[in-house]
TrEMBL record:
Subcellular location: Secreted, Extracellular space, Apoplast
Organism (species): Carpinus fangiana
Protein name, entry field: Phosphate-induced protein 1
PANTHER family given in the database record: PROTEIN EXORDIUM-LIKE 3, PROTEIN EXORDIUM-LIKE 5
Principal subcellular localization: secreted
Coiled-coil regions listed: none
Signal peptide: 1-23
Record GO cellular component, one term: apoplast
Family from the record: Belongs to the EXORDIUM family.
UniProt keyword list: Apoplast, Secreted, Signal
InterPro entries named in the record: EXORDIUM-like
Amino acid sequence: MRYPAFLPLSVLILIVFISPAIGWRPWPHNKTEAYDSIYGGSKKYEGSSEFVHLRYHMGPVLTANITVHTIWYGTWQRNQKKIIREFINSISAVDSKHPSVSGWWKTVQLYTDQTGANISRTLRLGAEKNDRFYSHGKKLTRLSIQSVIKSAVTARTKPLPINPQSGLYLLLTSDDVYVQDFCGQVCGFHYFTFPSIVGYTLPYAWVGNSAKQCPGVCAYPFAVPDYIPGLKPLKSPNGDVGIDGMVSVIGHEIAELASNPLVNAWYAGQDPSFPVEIADLCEGIYGTGGGGSYTGQLFNGEDGATFNMNGIRRRFLVQWLWNHVVNYCSGPNALDQ
């Protein structure tokens, strides 16, 4: 589950005004090929802790080739869809420039099921469904989200295929849709559908476009909260703050769906109702040295946009994931790789 990334005001004031060397805003250092590498205080073991006990609870992970079925709920611009589609397609791309989205997915592939089979390296886009007329209104609860999915898989025309074994159902809501707990508690979440509502048990995730409701919460660092004076947002790599913010949340949820689709596989903690999963452990870490208030060492493009990995043609900023082999957060743009 992706939570809003912010710190208490007193801590933020202390960081911004007393410790600029490890502040929220990284700074340019020296050029690496066509872009600048942004440096700050560095440590190798991002997020590492002897207190983190991520365990396997014997449930399934997605070892077969994964198909993502997207439900576009509400009003979406064509370019917004293109950005998100390219990110998802980049997960299995083989010729993207390093550091790449496919390199980021290699951390997910480290996770196995009880037979020792790894999560699939192949993830592709499947059939999509447009719900442009807000079939369940502009205010959704967690349960009504499942009703939206039911409508998509039981539609009279072009229903989404039902694939409980290797299908992921990704519900994306436009910036004018209000979802229960959005902004205040979560920026996205994943679970599985109830047969009593949908008729099947299907792993799904929801992510909302926060552009109009809470960009400073769910699209950070491309927007900053109003209560932090003087902090400038970073320039988003694809020119759309809400969508570029969504990309990292989508990555967060897809990684956790692959490694914990039925909430009984890989997670830390004793309560499966509130699992701490492989992306939760690295919330807010995007590069070497990341942690606390600092995103980590990132790249600046020639246009001034900030990113940490390359897709097929575009660039993205995506949070790192927990690597259970080395017991710390890792990503393709780590300086020690």
